[in-house]
Design a protein that fits this description.
Layout (H helix, E strand, L loop, with lengths): L3 H18 L12 E4 L2 H12 L4 H15 L9 E8 L4 E7 L22 H5 L10 H12 L9 H9 L1 E2 L2 H8 L8 H7 L12 E2 L2 H13 L2 H4 L2 H11 L10 H5 L4 E4 L1 E5 L2 E5 L6 H12 L12 H21 L10 H4 L2 H8 L32 E6 L5 E7 L9 E2 L2 E2 L12 E2 L2 E2 L17 E5 L4 E5 L7 H13 L5 H6 L3 E3 L4 E4 L8 H6 L4 E4 L6 E6 L2 E6 L6 E4 L1
Helix pairs in contact: 2-3, 3-5, 3-6, 6-9, 13-14, 13-16, 13-17
């Protein structure tokens, strides 16, 4: 009888080669600078800055401000972000943390009912209770102070013009409005996303946002202080605390006292490269690095891309990474996170030996002893947005921004949506009599899965910038794309378009409607529980090739990679 894994691999490889054939062609003159982002208008705003000899950080800021307008369901001024910057001159990677913080008056019972039970997820999300102190603008200002070249105000002009002149509602935005039952819950949100008859804005509608333009103009002129102090901050706090059916705790003092942080990037060798990610409070950097190091002993290059054998190995490595994530990873300013132990080569080598190519281990356990409890699993809706930028001097940015779930808390203030990032905390502060690391605490940053990543060669030269939206599956999406480029030698576009697969220490998910569906039977024969489901990533990446750059934009969304 034919080996079911090998047979599935042959079928899958044939489909993948056909799917990727149209994406591998390269122009005769590769671009010298580039932006890859989730919307063409946003990518073009970044390119405007690069044409003016702006830095990668300059272009990233302009891109992010337009994304908050044209893709408001995913990111914006009312949310936060993580940014990695590569400095081509020093060959150093810096990490910038703009994650939201819990209000000073929040407690670990924030998401518990009067009976002491966790709230239902959607009861917690909609309204003010879920809103953390936005961090995006403070973080962008910090990064600009250290790496910007163009004047701060210049970076705001494309978004201001678009907000005042209007942009066309895209098919994706229309579909998300039409599919959201909560957007009519609050008057400002209902009015912005619907026509006079209460219908979702049709595709192509010219949508203007003067309030957003006014907010941007104030910040362009007055810096981030114009957002975190004065009338804008008052209006944000009023919207949160005044949400009639689910008020929150965010105050003017919380906004005024918010600080973005510059942290040490996490970098580890992977084969002949060096991979760098964000440290906590996101779990993404640790988890992606663990997955790669756990897979290092295996010859992935000898396996067909996304073949059953490869998916199985990645799934098993992901189980081990997510087991550690669930117990140890949280805001390291509040919880002792054993980063050195989790990324220790000897520890990861021992963990890697638990991976059996012939059989699944099932649910994995954490690899270190701890007094902390495992985080209870809860819903983690995918949203968010990722952008990658490389400037003409070779500086690079990988940045993931979010307001958490689609449309965040569904509250609007000053022309933008407010986040629901606090629901990234564990709703239950304890389990089995032990505290959960990711419990709510005043001023704490909720654990994230955002995984902006930079890859360098062993001489410290830029190789690749990559990242994705997608809830906790961000980790799997990002690891897949990195492996696709480094191990399978796919082009950047082919890597992001490659069918998705992921495991979060449970069932292995395969992307519905793609070639990886054919791997289901072979994976089940190895003991994997398999779910075939929609997996809407938003991978946007750039890599260095001979003579220039090569970009990739996820076909599952509306993005582009623009370069000149």
């Amino acid at each position: 009888m034919a080996n079911p894994i090998r047979l599935a691999a042959v079928v899958l490889a044939a489909g993948l080669l056909a799917a990727c054939a149209a994406t591998t062609a390269e122009t005769s003159t590769p671009p010298r600078h580039m932006v890859a982002a989730a919307n063409p208008l946003a990518a073009e705003a970044g390119m405007v800055m690069l044409r003016q000899r702006g830095s990668a950080v300059d272009a990233a800021i302009a891109t992010a401000l337009v994304l908050g307008l044209v893709e408001p369901q995913s990111s914006g001024l009312g949310g936060g972000a993580f940014l990695l910057n590569y400095d081509a001159k020093s060959r150093a990677v810096a990490a910038y943390d703009g994650r939201e913080t819990a209000p000073g008056s929040a407690s670990e019972t924030l998401f518990l009912t009067d009976e002491g039970q966790p709230m239902s997820f959607w009861d917690a999300v909609i309204g003010g209770r879920s809103v953390g102190t936005p961090g995006l603008l403070r973080m962008l200002e910090l990064a600009h102070n250290e790496h910007g070249r163009l004047p701060w105000a210049t970076l705001f002009q494309p978004a201001i013009r678009l907000a005042e002149n209007g942009f066309a509602v895209s098919p994706r935005l229309h579909a998300l409005i039409a599919g959201d039952d909560h957007l009519k819950r609050y008057p400002a949100t209902a009015a912005y996303f619907h026509d006079a008859a209460g219908n979702p804005l049709p595709v192509g509608t010219l949508l203007k946002n003067q309030a957003y333009a006014d907010t941007l103009r104030a910040v362009a002129e007055g810096g981030a202080d114009a957002f975190y102090k004065g009338p804008v901050a008052v209006d944000i706090a009023t919207a949160v605390r005044g949400a009639s059916d689910n008020p929150g705790y965010l105050s003017y003092v919380d906004l005024r006292s918010y600080r973005a942080k510059r942290r040490e990037a996490l970098c580890l060798p992977y084969r002949q490269w060096t991979v760098c990610g964000m440290p906590p409070p996101t779990s993404g950097g640790v988890a992606v690095l663990q997955i790669l190091k756990l897979l290092e002993p295996f010859d992935l290059a000898a396996l067909p891309p996304a073949s059953p054998e490869a998916i199985h190995l990645v799934a098993e490595a992901s189980r081990l990474a997510f087991a550690d994530r669930s117990r140890f990873l949280a805001d390291s300013d509040f919880v002792a996170v054993p980063l050195a132990e989790l990324l220790d080569p000897a520890y990861l080598a021992a963990r890697s030996r638990l991976i059996d190519p012939a059989a699944s281990m099932g649910e994995a356990s954490p690899g270190l002893a701890s007094a902390q409890a495992l985080s209870p699993k809860q819903l983690d809706p995918p949203s968010t947005s990722h952008l990658s930028v490389v400037d003409a001097e070779g500086n690079a940015v990988s940045m993931t921004a979010s307001i958490e779930g689609a449309f965040g808390s569904h509250l609007m203030a000053r022309g933008f949506l407010l986040n629901n990032e606090l629901t990234d905390f564990s709703f239950s502060p304890s389990a089995d009599g032990r505290a959960v690391a990711n419990r709510v605490q005043p001023g704490k940053r909720p654990r994230s899965s955002m995984s902006p990543t930079l890859v360098l060669d062993r001489e410290g030269r830029f190789v690749m910038a990559i990242g994705s939206p997608g809830g906790s599956r961000i980790i799997g999406y990002t690891a897949k794309a990195i492996i696709a480029v480094l191990d399978w030698n796919l082009s950047m576009q082919a890597a992001v378009a490659l069918p998705n697969f992921a495991n979060r220490n449970g069932a292995t998910d395969l992307e519905a409607g793609t070639a990886v569906e054919s791997a289901k039977a072979a994976l089940e024969a190895l003991g994997q529980e398999v779910n075939v489901r929609e997996m809407t990533s938003g991978l946007h990446g750039i890599r260095r090739i001979a003579g220039g750059l090569e970009g990739g934009a996820d076909p599952r969304r509306e993005g582009v990679a623009l370069g000149e």
